[in-house]
Protein 1
Amino acid sequence: MIYRHFIFWILLIITIIKAQAQIKTFTYFDLGETEVSNGMFLKNSFGCELKHNSWILEPAIQLDYISESSNFLSGVTITGGREFKIWKYPMEVKGFYLLDISAENFYESNWGAYLHFKRSKHFRFKLGLNNRTYTIYKSIREENNIKTEDAKLREYFNLIYCFGAFLKPVEHNWNVGIHITNFDYFLMNQSTNPIFNIQGKYKYKSKFEFFSELWYKEAGMFNISVNNFGYTIRIGMKWIIK
Amino acid sequence: MDNKIKYILPVILPIMIFLYSCGDADLTGIFVTYESADERFKQSSHDSIIELQSSSEYYEIFSMGDSHVGGTNNLDVFFDSALKAKPIATVMVGDVASGKKEDFDTLVQHIPDSDSLRTFKIVGNHDLFFEGWDTYYSYFGTSTYIFSVQTPTAKDLYFCLDTGGGTLGELQLEWFRKKLKELRSSYRHCIMFTHDNLIRLRPTTSTNPNKEEVQILLDLFIEYDINMVVTAHDHEQNVDKFGNTTIIIMDALTDTYSNAGYLKIKISETDPTYELIRLNKTE
């Protein structure tokens, strides 16, 4: 199933390249630890952003080098969207699909959409909804005599959000910012589990952007009984190919 | 000033919403906790299994959550029902009080003595407010433990886990995994009790453990064939099934909830079944 998705995206990317889309690629490494990671984890993600007129397509994958999971490929995501203006205010609307295959006995699929408000020079705001489904693999169902109707668990209408504030205007060639969010490329947290990050970025010769982020995760903040959960250090770069 | 309000409002509004939803809250808990999940686990007594005996193959366990003492009317109804029906045990699945010492003092006066009814207590987030763990611990000693029930032909395993801080914590999770590996195959049925509802079965402001932790727990439920997971926290009953695991969120028992209720778990040779009982529907 996953490889069919891959082939589809590769064909789509080739089509878009032929259509003379703008292409950016990115990669980053995540190093961190959580209460449930059983030690440090190391992940690596690759993706690209394809833009043609106002249309955007962003496929990406995540690989686990060190983690609790025995799966090397742990996540696959695709986001599609469009830029537009309401009155004179720039916005983006994006729909996404995220497949998390880090668990042993089931996979997690997420789909949803969000609006990205870009009006302010120093602030960014995203707001949307996510729907999550956990599905037990067929082989596990057969092994454990699990009925098909009991193979799925769903969480609907989970609010997703991101509030970002930057020291410089967002498109400045260097910047420092802070974010409060509950989602990332390969993570859709519940709405009551925000994650905090501090990020810095530097653009070099308009073609390369280097970035670094420090993420802090808590547990139970909205229980008003907060507990440390973990952290992630991210280092990455973006490359504008075309 | 208007422009500043537009930027401040997205920050203030969520805070106002969850403060409203949390009632009598110790707000320091947003930023810092008095003790972590790992610290509470280290203090808790969880080395041995508490063994109960059932003379028949069929027995029941009564379970409730979110009594939020202060008020004790519904709590008394619950324990009166339990004393009449004589389940093998009752389990109080967190938010038993408000965290304040005087409310724990009241709670203790309403729990039947252990000779009449065996009662297991688990901490919830509200119980940790106002340095509530110190009082909880002084009365009950632990919030993480295992008990078992031996019938004439089988024995069943029950885990009580602390998610009052929104996570099991590293030590408790490691212990849970180790105990499942060590014990599960020797027992017929296995049921887990914990306060935080692990899954959001409806859009709600109540907080679950982080998604990474939920994934690990769901994997463990499948791997070790956990029959039932009983939770509270969300105050409104809900049930779903994932694999062979029935996931239950109980109604709150608090006096301030119009649909207050509790859970009756029925254990026999076949898979455990349950009955969600609402006090406003009983005679």
Note: Chain A touches chain B through 52 residues (CB under 8 Å).
Protein 2
Amino acid sequence: MAQKPEAFFDTLTIIGELDEVLGGVGKLEIQRLAYLSCVLSLYSHCPISEWGYLFICTEYEAPFSSYIDDAINILESRALIEQKENFKFKLTNSGNQLWQMLLSLRSNQDRYKFVKTACESLILLPQSIFSDGLDKEPTFRLAIETSKTRGLLHGVALELLYNQFEVISKEFNSSEGLLTPSVVWLSYMADQNVSVRE
Amino acid sequence: MDINLEKLRGIISQNYVAYATSIFGVKGADAVEELTSTITKLYRFKDPGVRKHPLVIFKKISSGNLFASSSNQITPIYIISDLQRINHELDDACTIEIAENNLNIFPLNTDEVMSLSNDSIVYIFDNKIEKIIIKGKVFTLVRLSSSLDSIFARPTFSSLREALENFRLNTVCNTGCHILAEAWSSENRIFFKVKPEWRMRRSLEQFLKNVFPNAEIRPEQNVDETHPVDIKVTWPDANQRAIIEIKWLGQSVNELGAITTKYLDSRARDGAKQLAEYLDSSHSSAPRFQTRGYLVVFDARRKGLVGGMTQIATANGLYYRDREIVYNPEFHKIRNDFDEPFRMFAEPKVI
């Protein structure tokens, strides 16, 4: 299967952004974060065809991209990332150098924004709210309810996601960035506030 | 799946990230991100659960040292550049300023916290209550469970058994979870409400999601079409799976206080048998995974209960606290895929 440079960039960025904060990132988290990054690109009106790779819902009901999985395996085989305790991945020095070089490319700036926001959302929210919220993304939810391995982010349910984003985007100023819409959408879908104002 | 605008605006109004952005724009979001990343990193090395004194951490919106801007410049008592080398510098009540390349530590002055928030995002941790203050507005972070000392601390457990033990001690024993609190018919925790199972499952599911970020946690999954289990936990990296069967013991009442259901020890034994059967199905339908079964029993047995009772004495309330359930057969001793059943006694409030 042909490799996708986007998947390599996303994997390096996710691990690079969360390496120090969380002490490493596991495969499932990388897949979920890549998925949320793609969802956030849709919020910003990027066509799904531009993301570079697609996702399916697996037998154990998680979003999965074989290109991300390949990227993880290849990066590890080339000692650009390494697996530590508890199956968590960290960047090696070489991996960090490669990542920094890729970050400097103008063509990656938009993509970096989506992946960075996904990682920030994971830090800000309790894991249960993050994963509950993502589980309720309409195309993913349909895949779980019908118990079939199927492609995500396409079909009729994708229109539901766009409708949700259209409503949410009207509540925020686009110049204020993606983080607030991301956190609010996840909290709304998880039906759980992360804070209460006194 | 359509967005309810009223509900959405309700969430936005309570969300501190939304507030920070509305007040300070994208700089507010950046400051929130840096503050929360720093807290998460810090709590990897300093467990908030053992903290005895208040902690304040702030990130200024604009550049510069907030304390240095005052006429009486304050010198930090410590400057930390490597969190891994922290020793006892943060043990006392203190204020941490997130500077460009390090953390500046000052003695805590509670009088200045509100004024700090005029140009900073301020975090306070005090007695396991967490707050974010932004321009004088206070947001309390929702504490999902007593098992989780901070929204930013990620407890790690070496096994599911260890995690379940933590859940038993910190969440079930004294009902330290708002989901579980809703399962009781009254705050004295004598009877359950009708059909409390889904709250028990939801409470445990939420806890497991927070402590095993690299596992898929799924409620009410079909092992095969005829054998549902309560929670399935899958670790794809390790090809391991746990299936958790939940049973409750005790009595439930309806809104009028009449007893609707009464479950005794035999229900736990039925659960063990069910779980053994589920495991047999699981091995044949998902042979790729190494599957292990866990029976979790929420034990709310009380002695001498009658319908309408609103209080219970210590002797009757805690009568079953240390009374273990006898299983026959003891599947955990004759099967190597069946973990020892977990009995989690939920204590009532006694008089």
Note: The mean pLDDT of chain A is 93.
